[in-house]
From TrEMBL:
Cofactors required: Mg(2+)
Catalytic activity, EC: 6.2.1.1
Broad EC category: ligase
Protein name: Acetyl-coenzyme A synthetase
Location of N6-acetyllysine modifications: K623
Single GO BP term: acetyl-CoA biosynthetic process from acetate
Binding locations of CoA: R195, G196, G197, R198, T315, S534
Amino acid sequence: MSAPEPAPSALSMSPIPLIEGAAIDGMAAYRALVDEARRDPEAFWARLAREHLDWKQPFTRTLDSSHAPFFKWFDDGLLNASYNCLDRHLENGGASRTAIVFEADGGELTTLTYGELHARVCRVANALRARGVRRGDRVMIYLPMSIEGVVAMQACARIGAPHSVVFGGFSAKSLHERMADVGACVLITADEQVRGGRHLPLKTIADEALAMGCGDTVHTVIVYRRTGGAIPWHAGRDVWLHELEATQSATCEPEWVDAEHPLFILYTSGSTGTPKGVQHSTGGYLLWAALTMKWTFDIRASDVFWCTADIGWITGHSYICYGPTAAGATQMIFEGVPTWPNAGRFWQMIERHKVSIFYTAPTAIRSLMKAAQADPDVHPARYDLGSLRLLGTVGEPINPEAWRWFAAQVGGGRCPVLDTFWQTETGGHMIAPLPGVTPLVPGSCTLPLPGIEAAIVDETGRDVPDGHGGLLVIKRPWPSMLRTVWGNPARYRAGYFPEELGGKLYLAGDGAIRDSESGYFTITGRVDDVLNVSGHRMGTAEIESALAAHPQVAEAAVVGRPDATTGEAIVAFVVLKGPCPLDGDAQRVADELRTWIGREIGPIAKPREIRFGEAMPKTRSGKIVRRLLRSVAKGEAIEQDTSTVENPAVIAQFSKAA
Ligand code: WT7
């Protein structure tokens, strides 16, 4: 967990130029919305839902709290997400507006208008229906960053089939577990994905996942041909996406679903157990995706919006697939990685496509800053970034140094940096500055958006005074909140509305501190056993059980260590069944364990460091002393009290990484 930044003070705030005609065009307008939401939350949300979404049948009920914390929003209204993202933009010349500019790993471009995107979505939606997919059936998506990824998601939305996207960096086993949990009937994947000049198999991994036992439920595998590379093929089950599209009509009547109908299920890591399927609704989720595009990003017809996230994460759902399209915006989608062919790729793309709003992760900023400092050729100053007007960050705390570099070197001192705090569970931005309105403080996500009742409480759920750290909670339900954990309502209730806090507060899982003068929030990092590595969320328990499943491993403990580039790095402490390995042997076993984790979870979960010892440091009651392991991982001298540790001598063994 990174050290808390000092709370922002009014003095360090930088004023920014007012943006003419923004959706929220000044502090007074912001305050007015906050007040409107406080006075009558239901009327506030109802007004916004009527103004920002097209309804087939208007809702008459705004919020149903009768089964709290299982809230329902706009639940007797009927709508379709894909209709709201596509069809409603097609009139008055809208069909010829550019929806997506796709840049492939190698730089090739594909441009799609709203009319073309609509036609492709309809064809795929018809194809899914032709393969028997009906409203409520789940479709798994395991695709690279592509137009096809967005088309597949929107096609599912069109026929009311909730999708579940799995990031391409997850292993066959992870894909299998998610596919089995969600009970998918169709899998949409690609032959290969291309990143950084390398071809990576997706279909082969997907087949491995299916062979692990989803063969009964998954009757169809749709394959997008990205590279034409050789892949295994199961006749009857496997079908090419382009062949399906060619046989289908370019129009498709949307499935009108009630607002509570699940739009998607996205798996994310928690502090315990297996990943949980975060279930989002159609109406409430889409409202917030559309609205935050306007409020936070001030999206305009003249903008070129670029969010660098992957569709496998919530950021790619809300700010690639749904938000920009719901707003009728033009966006960039990028297949590759920021460092290939060199670390100037992002800047080159901003110049090439005249990107005006650029939304990325602190980890990317830190690594590109390092690269630019080492090599002037990949410095943003080498590129014309004059098209930029807004910058945003998401996924992890941003350190003031990286924030300032981003603002000055990329934003040229003209562009507000919007540090947006939110989570898979919240559906969209929760605490974020408004461009041109909120004075900025590097390292602070500033103020909650109107309607979001964020607060900081202690372990018993009582408000803590400003300036004191505590647990970040949300006090009132909001439309885009998760509805449940798929198949596990008990886990939803216990995990997000814990009894210890009184059962009514949404617990984010992050620590935060609020400045007494400005009211600004600063997020201090997770308070549970969830790590944030390069903005990717990982449960320590998940990595530990994967390690423990290795035949040679007796026991494993995983902690995070602060890292200047990736935020946190994974450090694993391992006790083998045999003797503690020495030097070269330790290296070999560590490599083997890393490969193992790559297969059990995915390359993104591979520990940076693995340390071996003869036993875990434990208390007399047998609990692993994690605070000691965290210190050891940081390389700190152990000055803490070890009197409660039964076997303090083992700590020294762990002092060296393999
Ligand atoms: C966790 C959620 C939100 C989309 C990407 C991550 C951390 C997220 C910030 C921020 C500090 C942040 C939190 C949060 N986080 N944004 N602006 N400042 N921390 O979604 O995988 O659900 O992870 O990411 O720890 O709980 P996620």
